[in-house]
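Deviation from plan, reported transparently: PBG complex.
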Amino acid sequence: MTLPPHRLPLRLGTRRSPLAMAQAEETRDRLRAALDLSEDAIELVQVIASGDRIQDRPLAEIGGKALWTRELDQALFERRIDAAVHSLKDVETFRPDELVIAAVLPRADVRDVLIGAATVAAIPQGARVGTSAPRRAALMLNARPDVEVVSLRGNVATRLAKLAASEVDVTLLAAAGLARLGETGVGTPLSTEDWLPAPAQGAIGIECRADDEAMRAALATIDHAPSRTAVMAERALLAALGGSCHSPIAVLTSCEDGTVTLRAALLSPDGAARVDGTLEFSIDDADGPARLAADLLTRGGPEIARWFHAHANDG
Ligand SMILES: NCc1[nH]cc(CCC(=O)O)c1CC(=O)O
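Because the crystal trials were delayed, the predicted structure below was used instead.
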C-alpha cells in the first residue's frame, strides 16, 4: 500500500489532552511503520473539543459523547484533517454516514483500576468515591451501597491530583489510559470476573471520510481484526440497548475460534437493580448483540429498562 504523494503529509486530528496525544502518537508510529513513511510524512493536528473546555459538570449532563467528537468530525468534513484518532469508548454509538471507523488498534488492558483502596471490599465505610461515569458509579453502589459517589471530572492527571488532595477517598480509572500516560503502578486493576469495563474500553479507533478510498486503504494496514470484532460487538450491544453515556452498561467480549462471547451487565444508576447475561454466538452472526440486549432488557424488568429506551436518543 502506498499513498499518492499529493496526500502527504497525512494530517491526523486529535484532541489535545495528554492521553489523546499519546494515542495519536501511537497511531502515527504504527502508520509510519506500516506504510514505511518518513518522520515528517504524518502531522498531528490538535483540535479543541467542547468536552475539553467544559470541565465542571458531568459529561452525561452537558450533552454526552458528541462533546468529544463534534469538532473532529467538523475538521474531517472540512478536509482540515485526513483522519481522527479517538478513544472508542467515547465515540457515540451512532455516527454520521459520511464517516467510517477505518482502523481499530490492538486493544490495551480493558480493566478499570481502583485507586485509594486495595479492593472494593476494603474501601472504608461511607468513603467518597469520585467518578462521573454512570457505569462505575452503579457498579460501585451495587457492590458497596454504603459509599458516597461524588462527581469527578477532568483528565487523568487532574483526577489523580484531586485524589491526592483528598477531594475524594477513592477513584476508578481505565488501566489503558494510565498505561498510555506512563502511570504504571497506580492502584489495583479490578478483575473482569466481577468488574466489567465500559463498551470499547481500551480501544483506539481511527475515523476517516467514508469516500476517502486512499485513507481507508492506508488505515486498513493498521487495523487489528480481533480488536475490531470485540469492539464492534460491544458497540452493537450498546446500539441495540439504546444505550448512551447515561446508561450504566458494563460489557466484555472474548473471541476464540470464530465464537464470540459477550458478557454484560445492565444496572440502574443507583446500583440497586442489576441484570447480568452472557451470550455465545458465531463471529458471522451480526444479530448476537441484539439478542443479548433483548434478553437483558426482558429479564431486567422495568427498573432497568427505563434507563435504556428512555434515553435512546441522548447521544
Ligand atoms: N472517560 C474518559 C476516558 N476515555 C478513555 C479513557 C481511557 C482509555 C480507554 O479506556 O480507552 C478515559 C479515562 C478513563 O476512563 O479512565
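The domain at 5-105+203-223 is CATH 3.40.190.10 (D-Maltodextrin-Binding Protein; domain 2). We consider this an acceptable substitute for the interim report.
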